[in-house]
Amino acid sequence: MSNVIIIGAGAAGLMAAYAAGTAGHRVHIMESNEKAGKKIYITGKGRCNYSNSADFDAFMDNVVSNPKFLYSALKRFDESQMTAFLESHGCRVKEERGGRMFPISDHASDVTAALLRSLSGLNVTIDYNTKVSDLIIEEGTCRGVICGGREFRSDAVIIATGGMSYPSTGSTGDGYTLAEKAGHTIVALRPSLVPMETREDRILSLQGLSLKNVTFSVFDRSGKRLYKEFGEMLFTHFGVSGPIVLSASAYIGKTLSESELRASIDLKPALDESALDKRLLRDISASPQKKAKNFFDGLLPMRLSKLFFELWGEEPEKSFCDITKESRKKAVHLLKDFSMIITGTRGFKEAIITQGGVNVKEINSKTMESKKLPGLFFAGEVMDVDALTGGFNLQIAFSTGFAAGGGIS
Ligand SMILES: Cc1cc2nc3c(=O)[nH]c(=O)nc-3n(C[C@H](O)[C@H](O)[C@H](O)COP(=O)(O)OP(=O)(O)OC[C@H]3O[C@@H](n4cnc5c(N)ncnc54)[C@H](O)[C@@H]3O)c2cc1C
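^ thats the input. predicted complex w/ flavin-adenine dinucleotide below
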């Protein structure tokens, strides 16, 4: 039996405590907040999308950073095990669109309650309002932690401090400092699954407008497409947000930190430019005197219409038969390539996840033990792992927590 200290009572820390506790270890969790799972509480808009039932390959396709590193942990403890875990600890679950898993109650707190329930009967204690400030490192081994100036000794320490996003939930990035002290390198930290900013007034004027069934693409300076996705998005007072924009941020963050990027909305993704032009021509020949604005009624949301005509440079009241072929083609192109310059992303305060973190090359992928400092383990978002929305990030926290807790001898 080993004495184990776990820093952080979030998704990864609580699961690590369960795995270490069931393996017979004595576990002491230290949590800086006044309660456990403060971030779990706000996940999935308070409903906690705790995992995703996608098959293994599809799951991996949703992992953005270091899927190979996660292979072993996800194979050993996947969605079905997590679901069974929750059900066996009093939290019934349901599956929704896209394999998203939720507690049947729609209350995220039920997931945390199940995690805490799983610890009762095990040799696990939790100290709240307890912020770890340092590691005890002796003779090249991790021997415990320092907290409030006091030493707490142990045989193993698991850093499960989360990332930097939504710091009000307790994830303030302490784990990176601790890992660096232990000799680890930290892969550049960036907010991810986060809205994007633009300075263009014409885009900002669309605040509140949401678009469905559009394609959002982002291009680098050379015109290379970095990202393309079909779905929903919305305009905000700072730029753009919504599911396809958040996902885009996971793939373009690094490039965006170096230069501004061009984003483009295809408002009619089902038709290519020539098919769209043919459709317009058909409509025009059916009623040539019809005003230009009426042709676009079915093609554009009302809120976009004014800006569309400004960019097109034609009068909405003009009859379409008075519009030249070139001008018509320009309108078609505008529908397929409604463009804006993205200047950056919002910050960590608004990011669902932190990209970057403890370099996974320095961590044993089976046990989550540090390759730099024996006795030190990692679990969850503090590592350089992240995925798209849909329950993947919490499952990564649970799976790596399970591996870390089970990895202690
Ligand atoms: C708004 C929002 C919605 C989300 N929704 C979903 C979703 O529906 N599905 C999904 O899969 N993912 C979602 N995520 C992501 C998911 O919440 C995280 O990936 C996950 O919580 C990471 O778990 P973790 O245990 O690694 O870190 P955390 O949950 O952040 O836990 C870390 C814990 O460590 C504690 N801590 C930090 N430093 C110290 C210290 N020095 N001493 C002691 N304790 C410390 C913190 O207080 C915290 O309790 C969402 C994130 C946000 C912000």
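Residues 195-346 form one domain.
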